[in-house]
Amino acid sequence: MPHEIDAAFLSLTLRSPTRRSPTAPGTTLPDQGIGEDVKTGVQALADALGSGKMYGVGPGSLMADFDEAINLEFIDVVHEYKGSKLLRRDYGVAEATFSDPSEWTCRWLTIQVHRLSRSPELIEELCASAKVTFDPYTRWEDVRQELGHLFPKVEVRRGEHLGEYQEHRIEESIAAIQVITDPDSVRNNFPGAGDIWSVELSAFHRSGSFM
Could you tell me which residues belong to the region Disordered (predicted)? Predict the structure, then answer.
């Protein structure tokens, strides 16, 4: 089981990530929420944006649900925010934040798409464990087209312009997408113009408060 740690020890913990126990021979892995067939990263992100969930879990899901649904390595960090105890679980490609220690409940889930541009080992892990084949970079326009195909009634609204990023919002799935808009940004160790930086699924966008 992972250890809960204080944020002060984050740098130390990042050098010693928690690993899930090896699956015993003959054991059936839990459904990853993306079907039995391998999906592309574009398809997986479009599904997350339309459904508000990744691997079948998201805001409102209990930590026990995450344990059942996601078979990826993770790190847990516990910290305080405005007097409340929060736990952030980092899966590499995504970070889930939980509140209410009596029954840890996810409040928001961020898919850190930009990490894939410099983490080929993470791309390999996602393909092996989650049956999703991500490219190092993912264009927003490709995901938006796939979203329209999978969820034709979903409406994407343009949100705030945040420096080098343009935010787009989907109210139905409480999602926010950060897209790089700086024309001088080129693909290298980070995504370039037109690529997705991150996707956030959050109860905060719907209620105005995550507590």
Answer: 16-35
